[in-house]
Specification:
Layout: H1 3-16, E1 35-38, E2 46-50, E3 56-59, H2 66-72, E4 73-77, E5 82-83, E6 85-90, E7 95-100, E8 109-114, E9 130-136, H3 149-165, E10 184-186, H4 187-202, H5 208-224, E11 235-237, E12 243-244, E13 253-254, H6 255-271, H7 277-292, E14 309-310, H8 329-337, H9 345-352, E15 359-364, E16 367-371, H10 401-418, E17 435-438, E18 441-444, H11 456-460, H12 467-480, H13 482-485, E19 486-487, E20 490-491, E21 495-496, E22 501-502, H14 508-522, H15 525-531, H16 534-542
Parallel strand pairs: 2-9
Antiparallel strand pairs: 1-3, 3-7, 4-5, 4-8, 6-7, 8-9, 10-11, 11-12, 13-14, 15-16, 17-18, 19-20, 21-22
Pfam family, one: Glycoamylase
Domain Glycoamylase-like: 320-533
InterPro entries: Glycoamylase-like_cons_dom, SbsA_Ig
């Protein structure tokens, strides 16, 4: 066949047959977002401190099908309700830009969702829906009128005092464990409450006569309340005086709580010092309670340490020695100074100080910590014993206690500024980790057990140690968080900015130190009263302490 004939044949076949099929359309390719940003912050699942009209961008690997976008994206409030969004596009329609059409509320949680119905221009679908959580910024404006620093301190003391005055148990006058405790009163918290009553007289919140009447009620009740070897339990029934078990095996005496109660009673004894009969009788009744505590019994058969618990039926089954460093120094000082059932120095050295094993002497954030666990532990370690014990110039063979409490507090403060867990809200104005309520429970928060919960008592009870840092915190708590945090009995027990949570509770052991330590900062009142006790001086001297007041 010639070349010409072949060409003709091919051409003819081509004309007489059908045309070849066109290329099939590309198969839709499903996709994921290349990245997203909110106010230029890169891809996270939870955003804090979001502006009230944030700019939100999602980048796709292909052009967006605009028709699918409006139905696929939504911004909803945590409490319900949809926020209208304005949708625009960038970078050849491969970037979806969202912005609320109105300002969001301050400090509220929102959910931003992009559903899998979002499509690309070629028909692909979003492979996995995306849900982001946004928490908008705090309203930093003042919630209450500005007052002087002295007025603010007085206001906080007076409001907090109401917990121990207005909310005291109506029969015993003792402090309820917390604002939901009913008849459960706390021995240690009542010791703090007694010191708060003394403070209230000093600040003219109540009269001396009112305080005396309340103290007479308290002391009369305590004289008849159930005790074990003169020591009080953690909890009592405020109507009957009977022991209420703190836990299954803690159903008897609690020597540490007894120490806090005696700290308060001895402070009141020194304050009510007039020669008239009512105050003299009060002092005699306090002495009867104080001298009745059998501190030496809690050596557990003359061991070289004190034990925390003892009960009539379980005896020593709790088996918890009181060893340092923690909140229990006051127990050993009182036991050593007790006029009847006292302990020798060897019990302090071998039991509490563990022959020096309670020392730390490491540096955290460039701050030396003489005693205790890593990073210092919860701040109540530096509060409870030092409501009465004056740490200024207090020293023994193991530590300078002024250095201990100040440096412990500074480490806690610096930890909040450093904020290694990146918890929203931590700053030089919002700090303080100690034992408190937490969402769903209770925990001893510290730099080594940080759950993102701040307790106002931590910073405010540290006023004598870090006055400027504590004042910053007080102003933030009162002016910025005030309408959420400052309530009928002072500041709520705790809060978490990351969880948008404020406790609905007040605890005696947290409210009391706020009043007392602010007063020690302002006037030294409770330190001066407690340190004037001859028994306290005796106990400190016996244990090898030095202090300008002894």
């Amino acid at each position: 066949m010639t070349l010409f004939a072949a060409i003709v044949l091919v051409t003819a076949c081509s004309r007489s047959g059908s045309s070849p099929d066109p290329d099939p359309p590309p198969t839709p390719v499903n996709f994921s977002f290349s990245y997203w940003t909110i106010d230029e912050k890169p891809a996270l699942t939870t955003y804090y401190d979001v502006s009230r009209q944030p700019l939100i961008k999602f980048r796709l690997p292909a052009k967006i099908d605009k028709a699918s976008a409006s139905a696929a994206v939504s911004l909803t409030k945590h409490q319900g309700g949809t926020v209208p969004l304005n949708l625009t596009y960038e970078h050849s329609d491969s970037i979806l830009v969202l912005q609320p059409t109105q300002q969001l509320n301050h400090y509220e949680k929102y959910f931003l969702e992009v559903a899998s119905s979002l499509k690309s221009a070629n028909g692909g679908h979003l492979q996995q829906p995306v849900q982001l959580q946004l928490v908008t910024s705090l309203d930093s404006s003042d919630k209450y009128p500005r007052i002087t620093d002295e007025q603010l301190l007085s206001k906080v003391q007076e409001q907090t005092f109401r917990y121990f005055w207005d909310f005291a148990h109506p029969v015993s006058g003792l402090a309820r464990e917390r604002n939901t405790s009913g008849d459960i009163v706390t021995s240690g918290g009542s010791g703090f409450g007694i010191m708060a009553i003394v403070t209230a007289v000093h600040r003219n919140f109540i009269t001396r006569a009112q305080a005396l009447t309340r103290l007479q009620t308290i002391v009369a009740f305590l004289k008849n309340a159930e005790k074990v070897h003169g020591a009080f339990p953690h909890w009592l029934n405020g109507a009957t005086g009977k022991i209420i078990p703190f836990s299954a095996k803690d159903n008897g005496a609690d020597l540490v709580e007894t120490g806090y109660l005696m700290q308060g009673l001895l402070t009141a004894r020194q304050f009510f010092n007039k020669p008239d009969a009512p105050e003299a009788v009060l002092r005699a009744d306090i002495n009867q309670l104080w001298e009745g505590v059998e501190w030496s019994w809690f050596r557990k058969n003359n061991q070289q340490e004190l034990y925390w618990h003892y009960s009539a039926d379980l005896q020593w089954e709790m088996n918890l020695p009181i060893q340092g460093w923690n909140e229990c120094l006051i127990t050993y000082v009182l036991a050593a100074g007790a006029p009847v059932h006292t302990i020798p120095k060897s019990v302090y050295d071998e039991g509490w100080a563990r022959n020096g094993a309670m020392r730390n002497n490491n540096n955290y954030y460039g701050v030396k910590l003489p005693l205790g666990p890593a990073m210092g532990g919860p701040l109540f370690f530096s509060h409870y014993s030092f409501l009465g014990l004056d740490p200024r110039g207090l020293k023994d063979a193991y530590a300078d206690y002024e250095e201990q409490v100040i440096n412990h507090t500074k480490i806690n403060y610096q930890y909040a500024i450093n904020n290694p867990n990146h918890y929203f809200g931590y700053s030089d104005e919002c700090w303080g980790l100690t034992a408190s309520d937490i969402p769903g429970g209770y925990a001893a928060s510290s730099p080594t057990n940080d759950l993102g919960v701040i307790a106002p008592t931590a910073a405010l009870s540290s006023f004598p140690y870090t006055p400027s840092e504590s004042m910053k915190a007080l102003k933030f708590f009162y002016y910025v968080l005030g309408d959420k945090l400052f309530k009928e009995y002072g500041f709520a027990d705790a809060f978490s900015l990351k969880d948008i949570w404020v406790a609905d509770s007040f605890l005696a052991i947290d409210q009391g130190p706020i009043i007392i330590m602010i007063e020690n900062y302002r006037s030294g009142l409770l330190w001066n009263l407690f340190m004037s006790c001859d028994e306290v001086k005796t106990g400190l001297q016996k244990l090898g302490f030095t202090h300008p007041g002894i």
